[in-house]
Each structure stands twice: as C-alpha cells, then as structure tokens.
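When time allows, look over one protein, given below as sequence and tokens. The question is which stretches look regular and which look disordered:
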Amino acid sequence: MKKILSIAATAILGSALLLAGCGSDTGTNAGSGQKEVTLKVGASPVPHGEILESVKDQLAKEGVKLEIIEFNDYVQPNIALNDKELDANFFQHIPYMNKFTQEHKMDLASVGPVEIEPMGLYSTKTKDKDLKNSIPDGAKIAIPNDPTNTGRALLLLEHAGLITLKDPNNIYSTKEDIATNPKNLDIVEVEAAQTPRTLPDVFAAVINANYALSADLNPLRDALAIDDIKSPYANIITVRKGDENRPEIQKLIKALQSPETKKFIEDKYQGAIIPAF
C-alpha cells in the first residue's frame, strides 16, 4: 500500500511540475518578492529584437521575464501569436496587420506604436540620387512581395518620380495599379527578407529598414530615396485581441514608450529609425 501511495505521490508531483513548466509563471522575482511572469515576444532581429533587449532589465525589475523569439520573415510571427506560442510580437505596422488578419481570419490588435523605419531604394550600381537620369530605361527594380509592403514600395517609386499610380492614396496598390512607367522599369517582387540579396542582380531594390540595417545599409546614408515618415507605417506591439490590458503587456508597452527607449533609439540608430511616441 505504501508503495502504491509513493507511486501516486510521485505521479502527482510529476504532473504538477509539468503544469508549472507549461505556464507563464517562472517563480518569484528575488529582488521584489513578486511573482515573475515570462512574456514571449516574437521579433525580427534588427531593430525590433535590439529594442526589446534594451528594456529587458527594466521589465525584470517589474517581475516580467522578457523572452525574445527571433523570426526572419513577416508571416510566422503572426501565426505563432495566433497559435498562442507567443504573447506578443513586434515587427509590423497597422496596414500590414489589418491585411494579414483579414486574409488569415485572425483577431489581432495593436497595443501601441514604438518606432518608424523608413523604407528605402538602394543600389550598388549608382549613388546618384537624380533618379530620373541615373536609372536607365528597362532597369530591374526589386520590391517586397507582401501586399502592404508592395503598395508602400510602389508609393516610394512614385514619390521618387519613377512611376505614377492610378490612386496615390491606395496603400495596397499592386503592379496592376501602375498608371505610367515612362522608363519601362522591370519591377520584380521578392520576399521582403530577400530584397538586400537581390542587389547584385538588379539595378536597385526597395528594402525595409530592418533588413537594410541587417545588410549594413543605413537609410539616411545609403538610400537613393526614402518614403515619407509621416505615414501609417509605425511599427507596433501586436497581441491577440482581448490581451491588450494584460498587466505584463501594459508593462511592456510602457517600457517601450519610455524616455529611456526613445533615447536608446535616437542614440543607436542616428535617425535611421525614429521613435513614434
């Protein structure tokens, strides 16, 4: 009988440990006596992961252990968030989130903006910013292939005077919405993360700032043209709808919108990335 009770006790203890391992509570914060909660946030490495890293210590003092999970694409972070593998993500702007959630039937929400990353046009073939003269007829231009970044890239090309669009206010424009293309540019769509790698094979590429920075390209120094920062493209903290007011989520957005984070962004990125709060 004692042996049976011992086995049962061991099984119960094992189950308890398993349940503890699956939860978000990780123990007591030694300095404050409060229970520590793990917050899993998906992010692209640069700059989102770097910015999150900068608030880790601040959150730890408030009982939140920030776990950063890095992604190198614009699809998996939302899927992982929707599947409850993440508590939040930090990589996208509202136009992208709205389009993605509509297409994938997800209920995601923004908690607030953190920073704006100017999209830029880059080239290894020319440094001349007089684009109407420096870009030859028939030049191949790579742009991101996801819906909102395609529209944003086309708006940039229009802003640079290279094309015109049927509706310059349509942030979801596609190549079919190009009204005029006087240089007969060959606009090719590739995955956003691959745009820097196309530079040897195209005349120029439109690249998101996070991927540009990862490729040692600075929007202010290296871009032939950048889009208008007064835009709806501020990068946000995204959560599942209904989680906006979770205490640990509120602590995260408060830390990310703090004067300390603003100074970190300004000092580290020197205007290539701009605080949006």
Notes: Residues 1-24 have pLDDT under 50 and may be disordered. The first strand starts at residue 25 and ends at 28. The longest helix spans residues 2-22. The domain at 32-117+233-275 is CATH 3.40.190.10 (D-Maltodextrin-Binding Protein; domain 2).
